[in-house]
Design brief:
The protein has 117 residues and is mainly α. It has 5 helices and no strands. Helix content is 79%, strand content 0%. The chain is globular, with a radius of gyration of 16 Å. The model has no long low-confidence stretch (mean pLDDT 92).
């Protein structure tokens, strides 16, 4: 679990640093570029669509893990728009809360027989 947490910190730092440089050089105009690439129907757009699907799955998992509560839905919005920078921080926090229990990390506080949707 220590190696996983170290990876999360390293990934978060890399994304944060890279994003800071991109914002400094190009500003905050992500969405027009993101959707513009998708509109062009090229490989960058295909990657963006694939990435957006991964963001949606990440958001769905976060909401499910929190039983679709109000807080869980708010975290899901952050997961969708925050991407890996959110997910790295989120996984670091919940791994610490779960005290390294991978089952609790993945499933949240659900009981062993509670497989609810």
């Amino acid at each position: 679990m220590t190696a996983f947490r170290a990876l999360l910190v390293a990934l978060w730092a890399a994304i944060f640093g890279y994003t800071a440089i991109v914002v400094a050089n190009h500003g905050m105009g992500l969405l027009p570029v993101f959707f513009g690439d998708m509109e062009m129907m090229g490989w960058r757009g295909q990657f963006n669509l694939d990435f957006m699907c991964m963001l949606a799955l990440s958001a769905l998992w976060v909401a499910w893990r929190h039983h679709f509560s109000g807080g869980g839905l708010a975290l899901a919005v952050l997961a969708f728009f925050g991407g890996a920078s959110f997910l790295c921080a989120y996984l670091l926090v919940v791994s610490l809360q779960a005290k390294g229990d991978v089952r609790e990390l993945l499933l949240g506080t659900r009981g062993p027989t509670d497989h609810g949707a």
